[in-house]
């Protein structure tokens, strides 16, 4: 979604803002722009397309200044174009916006009636008009924002400056994140901490309907009505280097290769190797999870597939019934909730609008919410009752990889913890799971060392018309995830199926043009999966199988056999998804696609 960066301080604002916007490129965008106060007026430069076009435009201009705002836009109202790019300027007011103003039509009609001249098709420009009108009356930007805020409906975060008060930035939001970076003698406002990490590790997350008046150094916070409020400071541990490519050609590739380390980081708070124990702490010691009668897991996209895997883990180990919902469905389907339920939200970014809405719905109905996030301090993290983390480190590639495997690893611990609390985890089983998780980072290293074979397999996939990913049990969600990775990166049609569903439809699709990616590691579902594989093969399907090293039977049944190490059933999916990630990466790369920023997609989906 859109990226926002604002700066005021001793440095060249243009440079700081561009640097920040570059860090936000991963979120996906289609145009970009900056406004810098040069003398008494703002100088604005905007360009359609990637940041490099904005940079080359800026290189042609000769201006500089110390106060400015910048934006990368992901179009909602109005096509991607220079005229719709931000900042929007109206009579000395310059503004950038992320989100949607829902009462846009009503505001637009009123402004046109008053004779406003609109220069774009966006909802954002309308807010700049409203503030410009108010600031003329109020002669103060904060007072103008306090007047305008109640008129806006929707999900938005806005950063605004006014040339007549060249010593401040005003930030306000109701929805997507907006964060104030605290640094001595400088002011920074960003939509994602990544954009500010080079300058500070201390951030204040603005709450909904809150306003920040950011001066060069001091920052004051207000409620929507203008009453001063206190805010807490969050210390972010990530370093800015962690968000660099570090010699890899792509962020996604770097993140795939980081998985052994990331998974070990994710496991470390919960896995006590010396005592051979698993235990979790989500900051709510008084919760009695033995009273929970049902768990509802809610998420979107890849995080949803992690939740589906979590259902297998929890039901098998802890014997608690689990329902899994897409957040976009959950929030509108009037779910029946009870106080003995526990809602678990899963979100890498912690900002996904649908997941956040689902969380709020659960809280309104007095159901406890436990959040599993990667970004500490994100809106979902802050809004939940209990918290645990993926601990994957910054994930920049739009397609989620390491956050997914870290989530699965944490969910294995969560299930074991629940089982233990209910007296359902015999010590031998706990030892077995601890051993499996302890070996996991090393096994991931081993899988990564087979990358050459995954890349060869990916090139063969190029010749196929369609792709069916299949698996059973805990590997069924991996089939869904493998198909999603191929769709979003290679732009090829792929379907994920539970292998047992083949006879109920997908078998009709199979001929020699169809590639079947079969997940068949040695586990309790193996024999059944092999039968499904034989059915597909008999109909001409080209089989690429992922199975346990040394499985000669599977090798012989397959055109290509990709091996993963022998592992515990709960750990198998964490290993088997890695070849799928790498095949999607290599295929997309060989097709010349922008792997880190697939078309039409954004890293953090902060609007519906
Ligand atoms: C796919 C992908 C998305 C996200 C989804 C949820 O590779 O990354 O499907 O998983 O948008 O995002 P979070 O986890 O941030 O809520």
Q: How does the SSE layout of this entry go?
A:
Layout: E1 3-8, H1 13-24, E2 31-38, E3 41-48, H2 51-60, E4 67-73, E5 88-90, E6 93-101, H3 104-113, H4 124-138, H5 141-148, E7 154-162, E8 169-174, E9 179-183, E10 186-190, E11 202-205, E12 210-214, E13 219-223, E14 234-235, H6 251-257, H7 259-267, E15 271-272, E16 277-278, E17 294-299, H8 301-318, E18 322-326, H9 327-330, E19 341-347, H10 353-364, E20 368-373, H11 379-383, E21 386-389, H12 402-421, H13 427-448, H14 451-461, E22 466-471, H15 476-490, E23 494-498, E24 514-520, H16 526-538, E25 542-548, H17 552-557, E26 560-564, H18 572-590
Parallel strand pairs: 17-18, 17-19, 19-20, 20-21, 22-23, 22-24, 24-25, 25-26
Antiparallel strand pairs: 1-4, 1-10, 2-3, 2-4, 5-6, 6-7, 7-8, 8-12, 9-10, 9-11, 11-14, 12-13, 15-16
Helix pairs in contact: 4-5, 7-12, 7-13, 8-12, 8-15, 13-18, 14-18, 15-18
The structure holds fructose -6-phosphate.
């Amino acid at each position: 979604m859109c990226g926002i960066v604002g700066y005021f301080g001793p440095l060249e604002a243009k440079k700081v803002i561009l640097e920040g916007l570059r860090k936000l490129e991963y979120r996906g965008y289609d145009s970009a722009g900056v406004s810098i106060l040069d003398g008494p007026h703002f100088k604005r430069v905007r360009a359609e397309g990637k940041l490099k076009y904005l940079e080359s435009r800026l290189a042609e201009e000769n201006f500089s200044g110390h106060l400015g705002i910048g934006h990368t836009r992901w179009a909602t109202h109005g096509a991607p174009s220079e005229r719709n790019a931000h900042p929007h300027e109206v009579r000395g007011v310059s503004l950038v916006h992320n989100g949607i103003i829902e009462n846009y039509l009503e505001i637009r009609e009123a402004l046109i009636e008053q004779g406003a001249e609109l220069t774009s098709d966006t909802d954002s420009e309308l807010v700049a008009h409203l503030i410009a009108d108010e600031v003329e009356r109020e002669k103060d930007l904060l007072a103008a924002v306090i007047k305008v805020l109640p008129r806006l409906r929707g999900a938005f975060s806005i950063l605004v400056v006014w040339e007549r008060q060249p010593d401040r930035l005003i930030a306000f939001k109701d929805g997507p994140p907006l964060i104030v970076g605290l640094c001595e003698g400088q002011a920074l406002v960003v939509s994602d901490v990544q954009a500010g990490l080079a300058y500070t590790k201390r951030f204040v997350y603005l709450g909904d309907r809150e306003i920040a008046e950011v001066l060069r150094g001091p920052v004051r916070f207000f409620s929507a009505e203008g009453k001063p409020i206190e805010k807490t400071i969050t210390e972010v541990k990530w370093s800015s280097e962690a968000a660099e490519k570090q010699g890899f050609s792509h962020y996604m590739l770097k993140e795939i290769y980081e998985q052994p380390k990331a998974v070990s980081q994710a496991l470390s708070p919960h896995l006590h190797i010396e005592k051979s124990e698993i235990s979790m702490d989500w900051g709510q010691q008084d919760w009695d999870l033995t009273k929970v009668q049902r768990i509802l897991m809610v998420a979107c996209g890849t995080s949803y597939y992690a939740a589906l895997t979590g259902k297998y883990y929890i039901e098998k180990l802890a014997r608690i019934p689990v329902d899994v919902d897409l957040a976009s469905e959950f929030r509108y389907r009037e779910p029946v909730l009870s106080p003995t339920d526990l809602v678990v939200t899963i979100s890498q970014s912690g900002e996904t609008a649908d997941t956040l809405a689902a969380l709020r719905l659960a809280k309104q109905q007095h159901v406890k919410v436990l959040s599993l996030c990667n970004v500490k301090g994100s809106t979902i993290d802050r809004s939940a009752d209990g918290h645990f983390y993926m601990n994957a480190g910054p994930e920049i590639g739009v397609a989620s990889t390491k956050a997914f495997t870290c989530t699965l690893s944490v969910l294995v611990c969560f299930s074991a913890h629940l089982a233990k609390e209910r007296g359902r985890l015999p010590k031998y089983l706990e030892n077995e799971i601890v051993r499996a998780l302890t070996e996991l980072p090393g096994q991931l290293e081993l899988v990564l060392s087979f990358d050459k074979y995954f890349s060869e397999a990916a090139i063969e996939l190029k010749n196929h018309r369609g792709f069916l990913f299949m698996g059973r049990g805990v590997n069924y969600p991996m089939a869904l995830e493998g198909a999603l990775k191929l769709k979003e990166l290679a732009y090829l049609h792929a379907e994920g199926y539970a292998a047992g569903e083949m006879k109920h439809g997908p078998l009709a699709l199979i001929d020699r043009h169809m590639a079947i990616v079969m997940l068949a590691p040695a586990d309790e579902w193996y024999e059944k999966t092999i039968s499904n594989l034989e059915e597909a093969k008999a109909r001409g399907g080209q089989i690429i199988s992922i199975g346990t090293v040394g499985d000669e039977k599977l090798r012989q049944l397959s055109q290509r056999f990709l091996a993963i190490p022998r592992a515990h059933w709960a750990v198998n999916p964490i290993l088997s998804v890695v070849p799928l990630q790498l095949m999607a990466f290599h295929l997309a790369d060989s097709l010349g696609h922008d792997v880190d920023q697939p078309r039409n997609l954004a890293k953090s989906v902060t609007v519906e």
